[in-house]
Give the backbone structure.
Amino acid sequence: MSTERTFAMIKPDGVRRRLVGELIARIEAKGYDVVALKRMEIPRETAETHYGEHRDKPFFSGLVDFITSGPVVAMVLEGEDAIAGWRTMMGATNPADAAPGTIRGDFATTIDENVAHGSDAPETARREIDLFFPELG
């Protein structure tokens, strides 16, 4: 086990549905520290950079449109195995496959509107933290 940082985001559907407090409570109950947090509207250019690995896929523009459709809450979480732990807390991307008790199992409505995002690897976490919280670099 190792202490690490990860990037986490409550997507526009989660903010719109007023799930921010519930999700932060779950994060803190799990023992992770929220070391940075901001509510923001993501500029289109930032969203395109964030989802850059999907640029050539047919769903790319839909991803960008959705993530820029309203405010998000961007966070940096820190704790033991935070990357894998936060992804486990979120559950499967498709809410139909997400276990009850996970964020997506409890709150997501569709594969596109699945409430939360989390980095999938240490390199991704560094890139996403640098993109959304350059002041932490």
In short: The chain has one domain: 3-136. The chain has a mean pLDDT of 96. The domain at 3-136 is CATH 3.30.70.141 (Alpha-Beta Plaits).
